[in-house]
Amino acid sequence: MLAARLSLALDEGAFNLPDTGAIAVVAPARDADLSALPRDRTTVITRHFPVHHHFSALGYAVETTARGPYALTVICLPRAKAEARALVAELAPRTDGPLVIDGQKTDGIESLLKDLRKLGDTGAPVVKAHGKLFAYRGAVPENWRAGPQSVSDGGRSFQTAPGVFSADGIDPGSAALAAHLPRDLKGRVIDLGAGWGYLSARALTHQKVTAIDLVEADHLALEAARANITDDRATFHWADALSYQAAPADHVITNPPFHTGRAADPALGQGFIRAAARLLRPKGRLWLVANRHLPYEQTLESHFNTVTPLAEQAGFKVTLAQAPRKSRKG
Ligand SMILES: C[S@@+](CC[C@H](N)C(=O)[O-])C[C@H]1O[C@@H](n2cnc3c(N)ncnc32)[C@H](O)[C@@H]1O
Fold this sequence. Notes:
Elements: H1 2-12, E1 23-26, E2 42-45, H2 49-57, E3 61-63, E4 72-76, H3 81-91, E5 99-104, H4 109-117, E6 120-121, E7 126-128, E8 131-138, E9 149-153, E10 156-160, H5 172-180, E11 187-192, H6 198-203, E12 209-216, H7 219-228, E13 234-238, E14 249-254, E15 259-260, E16 263-264, H8 266-279, E17 280-291, H9 297-303, E18 304-313, E19 316-324
Parallel strand pairs: 1-2, 1-4, 2-3, 4-5, 11-12, 11-14, 12-13, 14-17
Antiparallel strand pairs: 5-8, 6-8, 7-8, 9-10, 15-16, 17-19, 18-19
The structure holds S-adenosylmethionine.
């Protein structure tokens, strides 16, 4: 999709590939094909650990934040409007040459194109594969920049950021899971997919918790978690939960993701359940919340000796799974 539109745009002269200078590709999907651009001059900018790992293995320079100046920037449109606008506002002043924006119709490329047409020159967009690509030249409103964003919970305020999970309010599923954590929660806890730290913050109200590892793939979310949790018992890991290694834990708490990039992917949540079984002590416990329709039962049953539904409400379910079966595979 990106590859097809990039090649067509270069063939049609929608923008020119600069002969020299650094090129930034911002927020690409993991399966994005960047072969239309010279690898030795291209830096991939991504917050997401698995994407970072992937492009790094392909030999690209990879960064979590943009520096610049860039001779060409290609922004791959994220779905969250505030995040998309913040990327345009951040990259425009760092780009001396073409500022190219690419995205699917389902991610809102037409609405961004419409907004930018009122502010500057977008040229004629390249239209292909259910998406559009255009080069923008013009001003970007100051209020498109990412400002501080926060949510509150019982008088406590938490920092979030555009595009991170539950940026505008606490997820009701996570709130239900937190309410089901036992009073005597104790020992070592791992929060898989910790986001900006809501579940960990709730777990840390239990005084007998001795340590908590927050494992999160989204760098921006993890930075927010660092700001939100200053408790010495917490350690922060920018990592892929599926391959994360640690000493055996007493508890894993998780509200697993169910999307890979833009696509629904129950296999990712199933991978989180397998990772939890691997990371727990023989008598360890997994505390899980998930949307009711997600097919996690079979994975839970095959990786834990005891699986107990704790609550089912408003479209999600809270489950306790105990005693991982270490020998099971699949
Ligand atoms: C449903 S959210 C839950 C966030 C937080 N625990 C809460 O309850 O608000 C799932 C989180 O998993 C993160 N995530 C997605 N894939 C991941 C992976 N492979 N490894 C670690 N974290 C991942 C997402 O960035 C997101 O923050």
